[in-house]
Amino acid sequence: MKAVYLERGVADKGDVDMSPLLTVCPDITFYENTNEEDKYDHIGDAEIVFTNKVVIDEEVLSRCPAIKYVGVCATGYNVVDLDAAKRHGVVVTNVPAYSTESVAQHTFALLLEIAGHPALHDESVKNGEWVKSEAFCYWKTPVIELSGKTFGVYGFGSIGRRVAEIAKAFGMNVLVHTAHPAKYESFSTSYKFVDEDTLYRESDIVSFHCPLTDETAGIINARNIDKMKKNVIIINVSRGGLANEVELRDCLNSGRVYAYGTDTVDGEPMKADNPLLNAKNAVITPHMAWASKEARTRLVGIIAGNVKGYLTGHPVNVV
C-alpha cells in the first residue's frame, strides 16, 4: 500500500533508524515537513498517512479518498477528526507511552529551572559577575526548596504516574486528580486522590498531564487560578490549549502566579504575538520534552508495529 510520512524532520534528525517502518511500508514517501498549503499534494492518493501535527479532517478525507489508515506519530490524537474518520471508514492509531520517561524528565527540568534558575546563574558567572563579587556566593533570584511542598498532578496516565513517582522522590507531598480515580485504586496508598478544586486549593505546584479535550480546553484560566495558592507554580507539558494564555499572562504579570513552565503553546510553531512571550516568570521550551533519541527510536518502532498490525488484520493502539 502506498504510504506517506508527512513530517519526518520532526522525528528524525539523521540519528534514528527508520528501517522498521521501511520494512513494513516499502512504498513510502518521506517528507521533511508538511504544512496546510502542501498537505493535499503530499498525501495525494496515499492509502496510509503518518502525521504528527498535520490536521486530518473531513476536508482532507474527502479530497484524498484513498486514505484507509492514519497513523498519528504522537500520543495525543486531537489532530484527527475521529468522527470524520469513522464516517470514511479510516482506522486511526496513536503511539501511547513512548515518551513517558523523557516528558517526565522535562517536567522537572522546567520545575528546577523555576526553583533555582541555574541557566540564569550560569550566564551570570560567564558574564564575570562572580569574578567581581565581593562575597563567595550570590543569587539573583529566590531559591526554592522542593522538599515538603505539595505537588498536584492533574491527569494520571503513564506520564502523570511517572511524574508523581519522581515528585515523591523529591520529598514532596503528592495529590492526584483524575477523571477515573477508581481505575487507580492500587495507587491510593501512595498518593492522595482529590477532586479538581482540592488539587488547586492545596497544591504549591500544579502539573498538567492530561489530553486536550472539550472539557480541558482553557482550564488554566483566571477562575481556576483564583482557587490556587498565591505564588503557585504551574507546569504544562501536555497541550498549549489547556491554557487561556491571555488570562495566564495577566496572572503572571500581576504576581498572582509565581511562575509557569511549559513545553507547549496554543498554536505551534509559536506566533510572534503569543501572550506568554513577554510574561513574567514564564519558562518556555519549544515542544521538545518528547524528543530524546531514545523516545524517538521507540516512536518509530511503535509506529511500525501499529501499521503492521493494521495490514495483518490485527490492529493495535486504535483510537
Main attributes?
single chain; 319 residues; alpha/beta; seven-stranded parallel β-sheet; five-stranded parallel β-sheet; 12 strands
Q: How would you portray this structure in words?
A:
By secondary structure, the chain is of the alpha/beta class. The protein is 33% helix and 15% strand. The protein has helices at 8-11, 19-24, 39-43, 58-63, 82-87, 100-116, 118-126, 158-169, 196-202, 222-225, 245-253, 293-311, and strands at residues 3-5, 28-30, 48-51, 69-72, 91-93, 150-154, 173-177, 192-193, 205-208, 232-236, 257-262, 282-284. The longest helix has 19 residues, at 293-311. The model has no long low-confidence stretch (mean pLDDT 97).
User: Which percent range fits the helix content?
Assistant: 25-40%
Oligomeric state of the chains? single chain
Order of helices and strands: EHHEHEHEHEHHEHEEHEHEHEEH
| Spatial order of the strands forming the largest sheet | 8-7-6-9-10-11-12
| Uncertain parts | none
**Got a strand count?**
12
Distance between the termini: 21 Å
Strand content: 5-15%
Structural class: alpha/beta
Largest sheet: 7 strands, parallel
**Mean pLDDT over the full residue set:** 97
| Overall body shape | globular
Number of helices: 12
What's the alpha carbon Rg, rounded to whole Å? Answer: 22 Å
